[in-house]
Sequence to fold (203 residues):
Amino acid sequence: MTADELYKLLFTIRNLPAALSDEGERARLTAYLNKIVGHSYHQRDQLLLSEGQEAMYIYFLEKGFARGYYHDIQHDREHTVMLWDQYSFITDPPAFFEKEPSKLNIEVMAGSHLLFISRQQLDELYQTFPYAEVFTFRITSFYSAHFATRSHDLVSLSAWERYQQLLKHYPKIELKVTKKIIASYIDVAPQSLSRLIKANRCR
Fold:
């Protein structure tokens, strides 16, 4: 199996190192990656990472959907804080890059196909291709921007506005995850989401 979509995304990142403007160097890098990138297919919903675990892998979602959530033990409630659609990088950045125990649960949905690489393999990649560290910088920058935007939206937008934003960013999400997950992402109870949808359809 190839990882063409992964490479297409990597090589369209802005401000790439000059070395990657050379087709020969790109071919050398992709040949190296082809040898180390793993593939997995998930027939059912499955946890890739649990709270307290060390994050040993970073994933690329070639097909499917995934989410990241915290479990509020006191109230026995899940708080979905991250959603990943096709062609996304999946990890818990502090747990993977800083080697901290994960505070996040990462769940991949049934029918998903993932590419993955271990932290050790990534370190060896950077030893061979030092300029490739730009990919880590771009991934961590994306996560920082995402959580800043999400924090802003949770305090600045109404629940209905958050729901509309969700539908805009993740078309047909209702076919990919349950309403309970959607409700937890926009920070409302499932019953409240049902009432919101019903009330706004009547307008």
Q: What stands out?
A: Residues 68 and 82 are 5 Å apart (CA to CA). Residues 134-156 form the longest helix (23 residues). The chain has a mean pLDDT of 92.
